Structures are given as structure tokens and as C-alpha cells.
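Sample 3 of the quickstart, ligand zinc ion:
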Amino acid sequence: MTLPTPTGFALIDAHLITNTPHHAGATALLVEHGRITAVGDDTEIEALALAAGYPVRNAGGATVTPGLFDSHTHPHWAADVTRGVDLGGLGTVADLQAAVAAYAATLPDDAWVLGWNLEFEPFEATGVRGDLFDDAVAGRPFAAMFYDLHSGLANAAALTAAGVTAAPVFEDMSEVVVDASGALTGELREPSAYQLVFNAVPARSHEAERDALRDMFRTLAAAGLTGGAIMDGKPRTVDLIEELEQRGELDHRLVVHHWHAVTDDDAAVARVIAAKDRRGRLWESDGIKLFSDGVIDTGTAWLHQPDTCGDGVHAFWPDWNRYREVVRAYHDAGMIIATHAVGDFAVNRVLDAYAELPAHAAARVHSIEHLEVLADEDLEKLTGSGVTASMQPLHMQWREGDDSDNWAVRLGERAATGYRVRDVLNTGTRVTLGSDWPVAHYDPRIGMAWARGRSTPGVAGAPVFEPDQRLTGEEALLAYTLWPALARGHEDRGIIAPGALADLTLWSGDPVAASADELATLPIAATVVDGRFVYDAF
Ligand SMILES: [Zn+2]
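Result:
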């Protein structure tokens, strides 16, 4: 098997945002063999291209930025969760039934009918009930996920196929919902409940799983993304990425962080470390992802003080020393460590654990993921820590302006210490932005718009959360381009300069000059990865 031969092209009549102090006023660039080899004016770049026999594309004044990189994403999981029909934006049960019926008609008689992106509003009158879809799927098993990934829906055929005949008792907050008569409604709350059903769905063929991952990367490219850090890497994820690249079908630049489960023993750690040098042209797999705590909404974030329900006082780890021990092992192996820390105390403890790691030649800059709430003392500890803060301000989309949402209720007054992106930046800490897709939408324009406006983009009068924490347009772009590159020690990424990798995002307008509202819907003209147009809407 061979990789497609990388060639070259020139892009002229472009507005370049280079993320460097050089090439002010440059309007053109030359790409050869996956790298930018020249930046200059139209005449000189066109001449270089013609001399080399490369095509010249006129960008028509489009803005070109370094390619956008999502610093926290789960595309493999997303490719699984988004199986079946997209039910987003359908406002009534009748609309949902029609969409499900149309999709079901394309499937074999014995197939499960799957869907995703359900919203709650259509069920206000009926309640969330699986039997609403029995006719639409002609008696076949039907299971669908709600957009928030916290709830699922199944009909009786699916519940039966999964062996769910009564409501089990879960140790966590999960619930198989029953009605007043004790009958299963089909509503499945939280992962332990909906996984009972989704685990019973017949596995996809290898080819179908691989192609779904390929298509997922192409979907991300259409939103301007050229790469991302996968935060739930499994050996299978790496296998599929490698296979896609060998087939010439990998259109995304990736860093895979292997998922370390709290229960993983020394042998598991050794296996991950042994595989850390697996890499390809577009990907590397030397990252690790660990959890230190959970999330605010379920009372599992680790906080300095308990939340208003008395929760939030525990780490994920029965023994915190085990966390320190495995972090040390991965660090000594030269891996880059990302630790999920939502609560302020979790951030504090992870900073302590990182601070005790020895400096050595292979040592990497580690990150903390989320940092959803921070006390002033945590900001002090971030100062000079050298750690990367990987944050997702778009997760504020679930907050309510009157603090009536579960997140704000549990935090009480501390809700005002949420998503302190500006404060973190002011400590001198490097900030990177990401989506956590499929937890939130992958679109980097929406991610940047939230970081800038701290409000739902495009909605007049929408509440603005802690406006003093807003980023500028330039900072939001840097946090999706140059800053994640520097955080990983890549000096040839996140910039437009001779020698840099040719990962580029082409915009119909200027994403920095556009308002946050405009940015969210600013059309992407093209996406270039490794010198190839992987999305092209010119
Ligand atoms: Zn995540």
C-alpha cells in the first residue's frame, strides 16, 4: 500500500493571518510535499508555481489561517454515537416519526433502527416514550440518543432484545424510567442505563466502523478543522487511524491520548507505554488521558468545598497516590499527559502532582482538561506551572441566565468562578480551546464564538456569562491554532511560514475581524491538510 504522492500548489489573492510577525501584507503562499515553502506576493508565488508545474488557485480574497486544531475531541466515540438517523432540529413527535420511518424503510427487515441528536421539546405533551416509534419502525428494535448524551430512548423491542425487562438499580445516577403503573417507558437516563440497550446493538462490520471514522474526519474538515487531540484513545482507535492512512483516506492530523482507566494495573500501563511510538505521517499516539474527578452536574467534580447538595468532595481515585504513581510512569516514558480536572480542588491536586515530576530530556508539557471552576488560589498555583490549560467555554451553553440550571445550583455562588479563561491567560498559562465533541458540537467557529462572547452566538438578548472573562478574536484563533501547536512542542504548526506544515483553513471572511455572532456562521471555503484539499467549497 502506498500513500498518495503529495504534490504542490500555489494560493494567490488571499488574506493571510500567519500568526507570526513576518510576511505582513503577503497575499500568496506555495505548498510543496505537505509543507509551506514560500510566502509572498501574488506575482512571485505564481512564478514559483509555474516554474515547478504546480497549479495556481485564486483564493478570491478569502482569508487563510493556520488549520484549526480541536484540543479535546472524541471522534471515534462520536462516529459510534452518531450512528443512524440525525433527529436534530425536528420539533414535533410527528416529524420525528416521519424521519424515523423514512430511515427505517432503507434498512433490512431485521435491522435495529438507530438515531441520535433527539431533543426534549417534542416530548413535552407525550412524555419520552419508546412506543411512539413502534409503528415507524414496523416493530423492529429502535434506540436513539438525545443530543446531550445523557439520555437515550428505546422501544419495547429494543429493551427486550437487550434483556431489560424491569428497571434495574444502578450505583450511579442512571435510571431506566418507569411510568406510574411501573411499566418501562423507554426513557434511559445516564450512561449506565442507555448502555444496557446500546451494548445489545449488533456490532458494525470492521469496514463500516472504519468508514464511519473516515467520514467523521471529513465532517470535521467541513467546519474548518484540520486536526485534533483524541482524548479517549484505545488500541482499536489507533488501528483504524493507521488503516485509514494506509488506504490514503485519513484527512485529519491527530494526536491520540490513550485512555487510562482508574482500575488499570501496572501491566496495562506498561502496554500503553510500549505502544507509545506508534505513529504515521499524520498522527502520533504518545498521549495519555486520565481523570482526576467527574462533572459538576452529578456531584462528582472534586471541589475545595462541597457543593450545595453536599457532594463534590472525592477524587475518582480510591487512592490518590496511585494517580501520582501512574502519572510518574507515563511522564518518565516521555508521554504527554492530559488530566481531566473539572473541580477547583481537582485542578489544584493535579498541579501538585505535575509539579513533583522530575525534569528530564524526554519530559513534555502536560495539560489539564476543562478547569471548569477555579478559586483564586488555584490561579496562583497555575502561575509559572508551565501546564497547558485546555478549556471549553462553549460548555457554558447549558447554563441558564438566572442560574437555575443544575450546574449553577450545585455551585451556588461559585458559578461566578466558572470558565475563567481570561484569568487563566493572565497567569501566563497557555490556553487551548476544544469542543469535547460529541459532548458539545465540534464546530470550532462556535467554540471560538463562545470564548469571545460567552453567550449563545446569534441570539439577541441571550445571557452573557462573566463578560470580563472574554477572549479577543485574535486570542480565540490562537487558542485553536498556534497555542495548541506550541503546547505540544510543534514549532512548525499553527503558523503560516516557510517550513510549516501545510494545514490551512480558508474562510469566506476574516474570522478575527468578524464579530462573535458573525463568526459562528462564517462559511468555510476550504480545508487543507498535509497540502491536500480535504474540503473544498471554492
Ligand atoms: Zn472529553
